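Annotated sample (chain length 293).
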Amino acid sequence: MKKIKLIYNPKSGDASFKNKLDLVISRFQSEGYVTVPFRISNDIHIDSAFEDIQQDYDRICVSGGDGTVSSVADAMARLGIKLPMGIFPAGTSNDLAAHLGIPKDIKSCCDIITKGSIKDIDLGRVNDSHFINVCSAGLLTEVAYKTETNMKNALGQIAYYIKGIEEIPKYSPIKMRLVSEDRVIEDNMLLLLILNGSSAGGFNKLAPDAVIDDGRMNVIAIKAANISNTLSLFLKIIRGEHIGDPNIYYFSANKLTVECNQLCGTDIDGEKGPSFPLDIEVLHKYLKVFVPS
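Output written by the structure step:
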């Protein structure tokens, strides 16, 4: 029989996926697959999930939010594993799955993983790590992992909006230098987003023209402004009406270097990111993902 490695985060979203393991295993078994589960935990490195990967596996499946999917994709890239990936969107926002049209319904996901199409998508690389959806710095960078789990479970994406608004008055501008293949930007920024897809952290339509397999990332850099203008821009971002605003730099790039000499946190798909400088590039169509036919 064919084999599936199922990597799942038992704490993602409402933490209910672990109660549906038998359903998933049964659905896969009916299609001729043996399922080998691996439970993610803080005391076991993600690379351990792939110790037996040479044993004739056909595909990798991941259950969790963007952070979980990203950590698995990062491990696969570092270890040179090129198997196709299936996704069970079990997190709060699931931006990559939403961009690819992957539903949350467990049975539908099983069908996609066993009968769907394979799409080659871009993977971002930043220094020695990889990201599937977004690398960010500045304001809102810590929102994903500062937002309490109970709040996210109760309110969903709205929890990110509330936490983001709370952070605005506390934040100071950061001097950044952005260098891409066709421009150099030096300015005081509040927020920098490097996007592979169209949304991040529950903020839909951040990059409405994003294409996930074009070999380019979409860059959004928000200039420093007073609190009133920043709050107004924040509301535009929520509504997807921010592109073209004079307080925003918006462009695409294949490679980008970001320099910053001030203390400023970074984020990769909802998890703490590397220190500056950031050397970012797109690995064109590097990751294979199962999507609806």
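Annotation: Residues 151-159 have pLDDT under 50 and may be disordered.
Annotation: The chain has two domains: 2-122, 130-283.
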